[in-house]
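Why should sequence recovery work at all? Because a backbone constrains its sequence more than one might expect. Tight turns favour small or flexible residues, buried strands favour hydrophobic ones, and helices have their own preferences. The token representation captures these environments compactly. In the example below, the structure is given first.
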């Protein structure tokens, strides 16, 4: 049997695909509208608390938050869209008609699986090009309490590291390696647990194994005096990667950028297991949309007159939500180092792929 003959007729395939997509995106629109409204209720007060913020900043927040909500709840919408479409097909005896014409359960589901694969492809591109950038920008905006955003949104912001007993805070880091530049530097000089002085500087660059800062001044805690300083070298032995790779948010990076960061961390001898799991999940996450027609297929087969159609729909929803719980659990275990990265990202997908096939074969009769 060739690929074309595996599908129902062109008319039936387009009919099923359209029914599935319309319901999926209608449910997604409803979820986004409700969840964005609830989220805005909790964040609008914080946005307006910053002097000068108004409706434009609220709209900017909606523009940055909505892609995150879409990315999170698209698989849920696919699951519910699948169950609604298949339930209607079952109730109208259209599934029975297709099976009577000689189509197998997999052939009946083929148009939905193909449409779901298209949704998964669109989801990956959307996550990679839009959601990652929106997440990165929103995280930086939250760090400045919804004030003016840094000029370069690709830079690291609000980084803290420890240098011996001292703490170093940097408002913004641009570039990487020996070309990294620090802006808004604060060095909290401590003796044991006591704060001795605070050195602040406007700008810093790499200088040998340390950092040369200018526009510096030191506040002596004991004397209560501020002393201007000439350009001075600080943070001896602190590597550039300790600043540039200190706070990596996987959700705020595209697939290619995250893979590059993981390579940089490996070269610096830093642990990468959690980030590797997130990298694999950037593929398995969108692909979960392909699972939803398989898990929701329990609603398509069986006689609707038996009164068990609602029960079958609930079983389909339960399987889908159980997958999402398992996926989050496995990813959390991967972040803790309990699961290998590949297993953390792909084990739930492969497990529920087999469960979906088993349920489909069991309920087909």
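From this structural description, the recovered sequence reads:
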């Amino acid at each position: 049997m060739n690929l074309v003959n595996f599908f129902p007729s062109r008319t039936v395939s387009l009919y099923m695909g359209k029914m599935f997509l319309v319901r999926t995106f209608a449910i997604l629109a409803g979820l986004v509208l409700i969840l964005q409204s609830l989220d805005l209720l909790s964040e609008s007060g914080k946005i307006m608390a910053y002097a000068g913020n108004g409706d434009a900043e609220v709209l900017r927040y909606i523009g940055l938050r909505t892609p995150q909500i879409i990315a999170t709840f698209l698989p849920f919408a696919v699951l519910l869209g699948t169950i609604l479409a298949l339930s209607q097909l079952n109730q109208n005896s259209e599934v029975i008609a297709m099976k009577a014409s000689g189509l197998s359960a997999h052939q009946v589901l083929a148009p939905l699986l193909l449409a779901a694969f298209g949704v998964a492809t669109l989801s990956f591109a959307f996550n990679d090009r839009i959601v990652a950038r929106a997440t990165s920008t929103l995280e930086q905006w939250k760090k400045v309490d919804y004030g003016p955003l840094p000029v370069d949104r690709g830079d690291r912001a609000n980084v803290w590291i420890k240098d011996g007993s001292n703490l170093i805070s940097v408002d913004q880091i641009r570039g990487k390696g020996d070309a990294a530049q620090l802006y808004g530097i604060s060095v909290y000089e401590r003796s044991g647990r006591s704060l001795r002085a605070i050195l602040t500087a406007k700008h810093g660059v790499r200088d040998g194994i340390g950092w040369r800062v200018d526009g510096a001044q030191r506040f002596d805690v004991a004397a209560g005096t501020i002393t201007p300083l000439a350009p001075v070298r600080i943070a001896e032995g602190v590597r550039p990667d300790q600043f540039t790779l200190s706070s990596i948010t996987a959700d705020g990076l595209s697939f290619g950028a995250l893979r590059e960061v993981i390579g940089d961390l490996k070269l610096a001898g830093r642990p990468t297991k959690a980030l590797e799991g997130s990298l694999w999940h950037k593929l398995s996450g969108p692909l979960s949309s392909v699972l939803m027609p398989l898990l929701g297929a329990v609603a398509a087969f069986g006689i609707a007159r038996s009164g068990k159609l609602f029960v079958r729909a609930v079983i389909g929803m339960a399987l889908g939500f159980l997958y999402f719980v398992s996926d989050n659990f496995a990813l959390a275990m991967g972040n803790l180092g309990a699961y290998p990265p590949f297993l953390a990202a792909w084990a739930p997908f492969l497990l529920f792929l087999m469960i979906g096939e088993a349920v489909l074969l069991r309920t087909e009769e």
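A few observations help interpret the result. Residues 295 and 356 are 5 Å apart (CA to CA).
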